[in-house]
Amino acid sequence: MMRSFAQRSDTYVLDEPLYAHFLRLNPSLHRPYRNLVMESQDSDGDAVVRNTILCPRDRPVLYVKHMAKHRQGIGRELLLQGRHVLLVRSPEAVIRSFSEVLEPTLHETCYTSLLELYSELRSLG
Fold first, then answer.
1. Residue-wise pLDDT tens digits, 36-84
2. What total of structural domains would you count in the chain?
3. What is the pLDDT of residues 19-40, one digit of tens each?
4. Which domain holds residue 28?
5. CB 117 within 8 A of CB 66
6. Exposed / middle / buried, residue 24 (Cβ in 10 Å: 0-12, 13-18, 19+)
7. Which of 45, 65, 105, 125 is most deeply packed, by most CB within 10 A?
8. Which helix (H) or strand (E) holds 26?
C-alpha cells in the first residue's frame, strides 16, 4: 500500500518515522539493523511528530506507515490529526515475515498495540 501512495504526485510518504524513537526507548531489543536505523532517523519521538509528521508540506496528502508499538511514549496529539487507517495483515503473513528476522512474539507482531490504538481512536470518536 505504501508503494501505491508513493506513486501519487499529491502524496508525501513516510516509512516508520518513529522507529528510532521506539528503539531508543527499548535498548535491550535486538535488531540486526539497529545502528542503521539509529543513524538514519531522529530518535526524539516528540521532535519527529512535530518536525516530520505534523510539519507543513507542499503536498496535500501525507501517508505514514507506522507500527502501532512504535508510538510508545507519544502523546495523543498525533491521534488528533488527520484520518487514520489501520491495516491489519493476516497473522500467517506477519508471522512468516517476522520469523525471517525476529522471533514472532505477540508483542513483536503488534496485534496488542494495534488493538490498544484502535480502542483509543474509537474513544476519540
1. 999 999 999 999 999 999 999 999 999 999 999 999 998 887 778 878 8
2. 1
3. 999 999 999 988 889 999 999 9
4. 2-124
5. no
6. middle
7. 45
8. none
